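May I ask for whichever protein you like with its backbone structure tokens?
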Amino acid sequence: MSTTCEEAAEQVTRNLGFDCHDVSPVVSVRNPFDLANGTMPVLELVIIAGAVWALVHAVRRHRAGDPVNLAIWCASLIYLFVTEPPLYFPEWFGLDEQYGFIFAHNLFTVQFMWDRLPLYIIAIYPALSQLVYEVVRVMGVFKHRGALVGSILVAFVCQGFYEIFDQLGPQLKWWGWNDDNVIVNHPSLASVPMNSMLLFASVSFGVMTFLAVKLAGSRAPGGGPRRGWSLAWRIAVAGVLTPPSMALFGIPSAVFGGETPNVTAQAWVLGIELGLVWLAGLWILVSHVRRRDAEEPEPMTPFALIYPVVYLAAMAALWLVALPAFLDAENGITSQGTPVGSGWYTIACFAGAATVLVVLHGVRRRARVEVG
């Protein structure tokens, strides 16, 4: 048996429709119109185009004297390459007994690392981190409330935008979780591990943003913005320190882990922590709206104006494609044999993401009227 395709990986990839023994160790390229289903190239287009646009936007911000956008874009890739390989091949890092095999991606147009890492997954880190940071920055939260409050709101915004995607992926075979992994993948909300919902979809992006804002956003000794090596090492620190933060915030639920984990207790702990993310985020949004008379928003950018709406509309369209099979699912499994996500939580995330955009544009319209 291949060292990159142990028994659990073989089972998950077989359910996705391919053999993990028959993969390319470096890179593989496929016809985007010949993937497992038609939603996959659409997803790739939305995410990869978003990452490219995010880079263009970040470079422009950097040239204008604000390096934070570029720092977050680059730090997210460092975070990716620190985090993803151990998730795909835990045995290489001596983590197979601690974490076990967690999940596998399906085969997309461009794939790396024994076909475990799709190009769109590389792209989603900078695309999503830039989306959530830029929305909060343009609202004026970082300017008026500081790095900590802004980063907490980033964690909330990321929860909404990311979980819409996360709750859909397993049903459409974008990836498959190893359901036999009780160490990491349980407890779960429908088909999505709650550890992933909290630690990846909120904690990691919130902490990375805080570190990038505090480190890269500080002024150089001469009073100007950070550049060159002074900026580069700060970006590296922000990216490298993000994964340990996930372990730190995972300690409360890990207390009930071990060889025979108390899954019910873990579910309660993770549920409470997720609830706190929602409460904190909504409180910051409400208080921001109340302060709108005294706190001017930042100038709107094309990226903040357009990409969050495009992302949300694309996810809504993909959910509509999946909805018939979702509604016909029995015991959480569709007729195609794929697990579904939580419909109620997805609706809550759509509502949360839409509320964020309403606040973003509503406060701005009011500001323009008052100025006029």
